[in-house]
Amino acid sequence: MNVGQLFECSLGLVGSLLNRHYQVELFDERCEQEASKKLVFSELYQASKQTTSPWVFEPEYPGKNKIFDRRTGGPFSNLL
Predict the structure, then answer these.
(1) Taking the model in full, what pTM does it have?
(2) What are the residues whose beta carbons fall under 8 Å from the beta carbon of 31, sequence distance 6 or more?
(3) Which of 18, 20, 33, 44 is the most exposed place for a label (fewest CB within 10 A)?
(4) What is the CA radius of gyration of the chain?
(5) What family is this protein classified in (predicted)?
(6) How far is Cα 74 from Cα 80, in angstroms, rounded to an integer?
(7) What is the SS3 string spanning the chain?
């Protein structure tokens, strides 16, 4: 259930950036292998291209975002 919640949060971010609403029944793989991952990644990619927020989807690290240390302003090095 935790992975599904992360996908839901990602779709919520995309929805707010693109002014879209998503209705997803279940994040399971009954229809296709990795169907939920493909949906979320493709929507994140579209949001990065259609908005002024390219950070939404980084092709080198799909599904991950850089987290910055607020004290130093630099990114944390242990993202992977």
Answers:
(1) 0.70
(2) none
(3) 33
(4) 14
(5) Belongs to the RNA polymerase beta chain family.
(6) 16
(7) CHHHHHHHHHHHHHHHHHCCCCCCCCCCCCCCCCHHHHHHHHHHHHHHHHCCCHHHCCCCCCCCCCCECCCCCCECCCCC
Alpha carbons 11 and 3: distance in angstroms, whole number: 13
User: Which residue type does 66 have?
Assistant: K
Token pair, residue 25, equals: 């029944």
Instruction: Give the span between the Cα atoms of 56 and 65, in whole angstroms.
Output: 7
Instruction: Render pLDDT for 13-49 as a digit per residue (tens, 0 to 9).
Output: 899 989 999 887 765 667 778 878 888 888 999 998 8
